[in-house]
Amino acid sequence: MRQTYLQHSKRRKKIPFGIIAAVVVALGAVGWHYLFPQSLSEVTQGIARPLLTLQASVSSSGFIGAIKSKVLLEQEVAALKQENERLRLSLIRSTLLETENKELRSFLNRSEARERVLAAVLTRPPQSRYDTFTIDVGSNRAVSVGDVVLGPGEVPLGTIIEVFGSLSLVELYSSPGRVTDVRLSGAKEATAQARGRGLGNFVIEMPRAVAVSVGEPIVLSGITSRVLGIVGAVEVKETDPFQSVFLSSPLSMFSLRFVEVERTRAL
């Protein structure tokens, strides 16, 4: 009986080694924190530092990737804008031609033959006179003063004002002070005069009663519908019965390499 009691007593007093070890580690950590707080902080930082470095590296890679994606996106947007402008001009011209063809069906007895000569642009401002440029064709290709010079998309640029053996000088329609007869496209068909302001820019003074919208094409007067410029702004003053319409050529003279000279003769 006594032996059995002693055996049960020994079993009740036995504590698992794992619990003892955990208590010792916890008490040691608490004591170390109060005795050496700076050391514990350094140990903690040492453990955390690799994780923080990895996180910063991942964040940096994501930031650089975002910048590259933004640059590529901006380039794509710029290219799409250029293509959209080209298609818009093509649509404008197609619409104008369709309207013009309907009107010309009753004028079948009128005909004009146009011969065109391809020319390279040699000099432009500031190498040439203001709002003029030179081309590599002259009397050797039978061009003459007054011939119209066209850019891509049949955009009218100006006329030849001087002819030499193998060179010609072209003056832009936008030359300051130069006046060109124009008309609004579409159903309004209002006529006006565009005054050159230099470097492909024009201004038109017309009655306020004529509705003009930004983005509207202005074409040369005549049998053909060639877009001289696109309305960029309309300025209206309350005390003025006229409005100022500002337009710009759809082409930049500084980027042109080739043009066409149109020679016209009546049949």
Automatic annotation (TrEMBL):
One of its GO terms (biological process) is regulation of cell shape. It comes from the Bacteria. Keywords: Cell shape, Membrane, Transmembrane, Transmembrane helix. The keyword Membrane applies. GO terms for cellular component: plasma membrane. Residues 121-259 form the Rod shape-determining protein MreC beta-barrel core domain. The chain crosses the membrane at residues 15-35. InterPro entries: Cell/Rod_1, Cell/Rod_MreC_2, MreC, MreC_beta-barrel_core. Belongs to the MreC family. This is Cell shape-determining protein MreC.
